[in-house]
Design a protein that fits this description.
- The structure is a homodimer of 346-residue chains.
- The first copy, chain A, is an alpha/beta fold and 346 residues long.
- Helices cover 47% and strands 11% of the residues of chain A.
- Chains A and B meet through helix 10, helix 12 and helix 15 of A and helix 10, helix 12 and helix 15 of B.
């Protein structure tokens, strides 16, 4: 007899589950004392490039909370360094050679991830040996548009006006760059799949900077190209268009099995837009973890109620966890989601 | 015979207009050389507190572009200083005494604007003498929730996690603070109306940090209280819930005649949600001003097409103009909106 599928993978495929699976965006991070202890010894970049340490911090939250999935500890910028990008962290990404003219785009090459990021693939191999079967490993990459934002802007920004201006001023070059990033990310994700990850997630952190028209004409074709490059892999694919409330009609065409929903859109409204052919992941406001326990419980119940009884819901935050969060609030969250959904079958 | 109403005021009231009126959020600012010249001599805070200079920079863009409205040069934080808040700009607002505990809320008093911000009222009086009749003067204030964000967080932030945590952890105190801000802003806006402004706008720059549930339970009652405090004034009221795509069903209950729409939601979709009882203002992506003229023209036409032929559209950007914008692109925008809508009657 075949062993039952772990609930996280079952929910991604909209199969019935014994309870609603839960994991937390940026679950490995500074809010955990055990993570901070590792970071006392090494800086962020070294941590992402040292397979044993990256694996260790990936496992920490699974061990502490009994989460239903693990997500590889890495950074969305990691694979672009090998494309010819001067990358530092201070603490956000800083690009030494931002793309400002069409000719800068030619500089970027699509590299072989086995040569440029072997440490990522090694971390995955370690993790597949060490993680419990109940916590499938998620590999990930940045969406082409989100990587574009950093590469053109040169780092983080409130408005990413240089990146957005480049779209409007140089649409043809912008498409060349987006396509190159799309191909690189497809190769990167495929390499992660071959190394053993059990699901793949694409983070489009800056999707919400675009109107539906620009999303449809620039970001969507690029991310679709990435997902098309993963055809034939038997892994659930997750797409998270952050702040994408107005983009979901288009985002569901990206080709993912699961759409991540930020906290701004109640899941019932997201389901009404995306239909029942994709699963949804989300979407507790990370600030709710600062509420007293009874109020936090009310917020958790509200997300579960919004998700409804139909299959295909993975509980998560609607954005990354804040570094000042109390780990005990996360433990409460994970336990309540499990307890309150056990036996729902949905 | 009564003189015809200026197009901006007519559009706010959903009356027919000879052409679509246009103004630009943050139209007085650093992208204008004549503004930078004034700022070489005085700092931002001094500028907001010197009526002659505030009036001069308010008029500059009207003079240069022939805009259909002027907006008072000031800052949303200006009226909170008189409530007992230690305020500096560096360059964004920095609060010396942020509100972190329920007892901090009691410190804030509702002050008389005539005593705390006489310079604002004087600037309005100067402007009513100097502005052409074709450019009605808009007064403004921050929405209670947006002011709350700064007062609790202590300054600008990407996530305003301290402000949002306060909502979740101390909901009763949060409501007391929101109500106090609501009353103060009603008094402040009423004083502006008495000094002569011809429309009033409430900026809820951080509305988009809230889910519909939190918006409905905290931000909306407060901003509604502000608008209720303006009853009896015969002025159009404008509410801009920035990044509020998921909040519009609720935002239309705030009590404004006009809703500002950011660039993320096409105006036809906004109109479908808010109905025909309110006018809409927006919503060109500020990044479109960096496009070559023909592409910018396409973007302008797209906003006009989305707004549709029915009355009640004020053309604007979907967010504040960027300081690196070319003033000639703004001139092009204003001229095209006028030219392409002349004789539409809607």
């Amino acid at each position: 007899m075949r062993r039952p599928e772990p609930p996280f993978l079952a929910a991604c495929r909209r199969n019935p589950v014994p309870f609603t699976p839960v994991w937390i965006m940026r679950q490995a991070g500074r809010y955990l004392p055990e993570y901070r202890k590792v970071r006392e010894k090494v800086d962020f970049l070294t941590l992402t490039k040292t397979p044993e340490l990256a694996a260790e911090v990936t496992i920490q939250p699974v061990r502490r909370f009994g989460l239903d999935a693990a997500i590889l500890f890495s950074d969305i910028m990691t694979p672009v360094e090998g494309m010819g990008v001067d990358l530092e962290f201070d603490p956000g990404p800083v690009i030494g050679n931002p793309i400002r003219r069409p000719e800068d785009v030619d500089r970027l090459r699509v590299a072989d991830p086995r040569e440029t990021v072997p440490f990522v693939l090694e971390a995955i191999e370690i993790l597949r040996r060490e993680l419990p079967e109940s916590a499938p490993l998620i590999g990930f990459a940045g969406a082409p548009w989100t990587l574009f934002c950093y590469l053109v802007e040169g780092g983080g920004s409130k408005t990413f006006i240089k990146a957005k201006s480049f779209l409007f001023a140089e649409p043809d070059s912008a498409r060349v760059l987006l396509n190159r990033l799309a191909e690189m990310m497809a190769a990167y994700l495929r390499a992660q799949a071959e190394a053993g990850v059990q699901a793949l997630m694409v983070f489009d952190s800056w999707a919400g900077l675009l109107s539906p028209y620009e999303f449809r004409s620039f970001a969507l074709p690029a991310v679709r190209r990435t997902f098309e490059g993963l055809r034939g892999l038997d892994l659930p694919l997750i797409y998270f268009p952050n702040q994408g409330s107005t983009l979901l009609e288009d985002a569901k065409l990206a080709g993912a099995d699961v759409l991540g929903i930020d906290w701004r859109l109640p899941l019932s409204r997201a389901r009404a837009v995306v239909g029942s052919e994709v699963a949804v992941q989300g979407n507790l406001d990370p600030a709710a973890l600062f509420a007293p326990r009874d109020a936090l419980g009310t917020q958790i119940r509200s997300v579960l109620r919004e998700a409804g009884p139909e299959p295909g819901h993975i509980f998560n935050l609607g954005h990354g966890i804040e570094r000042t969060t109390d780990p005990d609030a996360v433990a409460f969250l994970v336990d309540r989601v499990h307890e309150w959904t056990e036996g729902n079958g949905g």
